[in-house]
Amino acid sequence: MKRLPLFVCLGLLLLVVTVIPVTASPEIYSISPATAPNTGDVTVTITGTGFNSQSTVFVAANSTGSVIHGTVVSWSPTSITCTFSLNGQTPAKFNVVVNSPLTDPTGHLWPQDNGFLSDAFEIYQGTGMTAMTTTAPVATTVPETTPLPTTAATVQKTVSPLGTELGIIAILGTALLLIKRK
Asked: Around Cβ 97, how many Cβ atoms within 10 Å?
């Protein structure tokens, strides 16, 4: 009779050890930088706990439904550095999510073990110049009185019908660089 409570306690302890994963679920404390323009890639560092070598990162916007997956560059149990491609993304606030799947000591895989930080990252409308290149041959108009040296570049300024200023640079007649001012 005196041993019954001891067996009950041991039984409960065994049950707890086999059901609860060894590693705690990921928890996110912060992301830095917390804002970025929608004009290219951004590398961020996420701090928290419970990260592992299988961790993946994504941001999700409630307002637009957009999900952007990051590429993990480095990780530790308390930090993940990853890169997001934000070019052309709609400006919005995003939730940050880290998924750190794990396998417990009994071999059971826990594929969805997420940490979540609400509205922690914001993409804003970027400004500045955007460059596009092409290697198609370029036809330029040069006055007959101005000879074009074989090593020179020709610069021509054009205004589009929408009033956008475009700078066109032709180098040796083989490359074209358009610089658009927003």
From this structure: 21
Positive or negative torsion for Cα 112, 118, 120, 126: positive
| pTM assigned to the model | 0.59
- CATH for 22-124? 2.60.40.10
Parts of the chain belonging to CATH 2.60.40.10 = 22-124
Q: What is the pLDDT along the chain (182 residues), one digit of tens a residue?
A: 566 555 555 555 554 444 444 557 899 999 999 999 999 999 999 999 999 999 999 999 989 899 999 999 999 999 999 999 999 999 999 999 999 998 888 988 888 899 999 999 999 999 865 544 444 444 445 455 444 444 444 444 444 444 444 444 433 344 444 444 44
